User: Fold these one by one.
Assistant:
Number 1:
Amino acid sequence: MECLSDLDIIYELSVEELIKHKEDETFDRTEFGQDTIGKKIAGFGTKNGGVLLVGQKDFHNGGEVLGIDKEFHREFSQAISNVKPTPLTKSKIVKYQDKELALIQIKDVGELRPCAYKKTFYERKSDSTITLPPEEVRRYHITYGGVNMENLPTHASKKDIDERELMNYEK
């Protein structure tokens, strides 16, 4: 049986639980907009990953559920294409009353951090996404500078390993 990560647990919450979930270092919500989504994805990718609910105002702005519009898919694809390095994501559309919301799970980029959106680096701190100052970007590059291909994130699982191919390498 596969053990669920904290991000997986949040991603699998019911929509009723999500709209009440407290914003923190691994969960955020936003109304919509390519730049807002891109910055939040970059921030989660730099830190420890996270889950983003799109289509609801922040609690300090009332928490109203607005839903997403037909532009969401375009905004999301343009946002993610402007995040470098690009973190692995998965997303789904969830329904709440008569509205649709988008839920995006973002993995951290491991040794490739930090992530930039449109050439500005971001990081998740507490319940906010902040711009990284140049000295913090340098610190990340010094800390994670030696990228090992074996440590890069992947969608593959143990089930994807070809046991016969693996036997060829054991000889």
Number 2:
Amino acid sequence: MHLTQLTLDSRHTAIRRDLGNAYDMHRTLARAFATQPDAPPERFLWRLDALDALTGRAVVLIQSNGPGVWNHLPTSSVQVREKSFDPASLAQPGQRCQFRLLANPTVSRQGKRYGVWEETAQRDWLVRQLSQAGATLHDVECTRNERCCCASLAKPSLLCCAPLALKVSSP
């Protein structure tokens, strides 16, 4: 697993655009994980970790299977810190973990993606995702407030959890 920390200068026009729209940010970050321009990107997770309006700095954290290629970002406005880690060393069987999650749950039917709208279906989606990773859901609090969901993403298909408690299962 690989963890990347991008420190962004929001005075740059493209960075400001991405910070204002999570879909634009996702598209920009995905370019770092596409092996070829027309190829789909490898899977990755990201979150906007901090945004300081006084300094114009934003911090984005990215988890991926390998390092990204960040040469498409404006070098004068981005600082990149990267490190590899073993996720198995972070969680032991029986351990409980808490984290926040902002997700856009989807299901695929006949090659198309569809948003998951019902809260119970969103919870079922989350349980399936966690079980694939060897974890079980113990408690979840779903919210739809603007502090958790970006205003540009405030759609009914969003699952916002704060905090989320899970228990790691044996491999």
